[in-house]
Amino acid sequence: MKKAQKVAASAAALAMAIGLAACSSDTPAHTDADVTLRYWLWDSSQLPGYRQCAENFQEDNPDIFISLEQYGWDDYWTQLTASMVAENAPDVFTNHTSRFGKYGSLDQILDVSGYIEADGYDLDQFEDGLVDQWVSESGTAQLGIPKDWDTVGLFYNEDMIKEAGYSPEDLWELEWNPEDGGTYEEFLAAMTIDKNGVHGNEEGFDKNNVATYGIGYNEAGSGYGQVQWSPYALSNDWEYADQNPWGRVFNYDDENFQEAIAWWKSLIDKGYMPKLSIASSGIGTLESFGAGAYATLIEGSWNMSNVAAKAAVPVDVAPTPIGPSGDRASVMNGLADSIWVGTEHPDEAWKWVSYMGSTECQDIIASEAVVFPAISSSTEKAIPAFGELGFDAEAFSIHLEDGTGVTSPVVDRWAQLDSIMNPAMSAVIDGQADVSTLTNANEQVNNMMARDRE
Length: 454
Prior knowledge:
Blueprint: H1 9-17, E1 24-25, E2 35-41, H2 47-60, E3 64-70, H3 73-85, E4 92-95, H4 97-105, H5 113-119, E5 145-146, E6 148-149, E7 152-157, H6 158-163, H7 168-171, H8 182-191, E8 193-194, E9 210-212, H9 230-234, H10 255-269, H11 276-279, H12 285-290, E10 296-300, H13 304-310, E11 315-318, E12 330-332, E13 336-339, H14 346-356, H15 359-368, E14 372-373, H16 376-387, H17 394-402, E15 405-407, H18 414-429, H19 438-450
Parallel strand pairs: 2-3, 2-4, 12-15
Antiparallel strand pairs: 1-3, 4-13, 5-13, 6-14, 7-10, 7-11, 8-9
């Protein structure tokens, strides 16, 4: 296929060097069906739900067999790119907004607009904003059907907030600002405890010998900051780029962004948040939070079941704090199912994709309490399912209700953007550079985005 030749040459080498041994196949090796569709996903926790969807689909479509294949996150994208180069990609694959732009610009995704029109497929059933994330830059092609959505929230140790004199209701009212941090910073100080048992809001607190940090994180967040700084920057009247999707001019030089980052970094200086070297030491944030090393954690809704499984302490979740804008904020990301442009079975692939985007399948996903389904009516069924895990899932859905969810940025050069913003942001959070250096990084990003595409 000529289009596949556009993919990076380095990936071609990977296609020859890396086999598919890392794959976890969830299906038999052969079938009597006329057509076998390969479907790839990376999240093992979603396998049971999609296994059930596949079984139901095959009952109604006995001529089509769904072969589910699951990889870990990093292997997934390496293998997907390599398989496209080798012209052996899966018929259908789970797509992510951070990778979609690249594959879309390289013409590796089938436009399903014709199928949508022919079938009268209802795109209005999905939560607002999700469908638009998967439209081509020209606005003429639909390159994915939404499968789920996520926002972030403030997970907290229930015992610790009670000991500090806070109630769960108090956490819904927390506010932050870049001047003094507001009631949110007061809360984080109260939740921080040094090795002598002194809290961060008490005299004699030793910020250099902390036993429990008020809040944890895993890395500096690069140019995305989904579970790091995004709730603060976005609630400080800041936007990633001039438009979304397909932004070309980014705003990391914006005063509101840089003051939000400066305040976030100040939590490290005050001892309420660990240094970058500690946060990125290799010990997972969920493990540290579950063991009591962090009192709170900004984390995604997709990790509720993981938090429940790993925490040795009682845990619940509150929404992100209200910012200077007068609203709270969260990135609202969403995954989609896309069809590889080189599939030999586009009609059958569309049948499977449209079934995964049906209430029958998404209600199954809702009952699994792993992610929020993209269809609005299915989301309503997921909230009580998460409640059975002990979480107040409305802490995530409030962003839909209040319109404070900001759709995840989609560009065709996210890897290049990341290569600029990752070291720049890490230098700032590590104390090696002033926040003003992000202005130069932003200039590099915009110059890169302005270049003619190869």
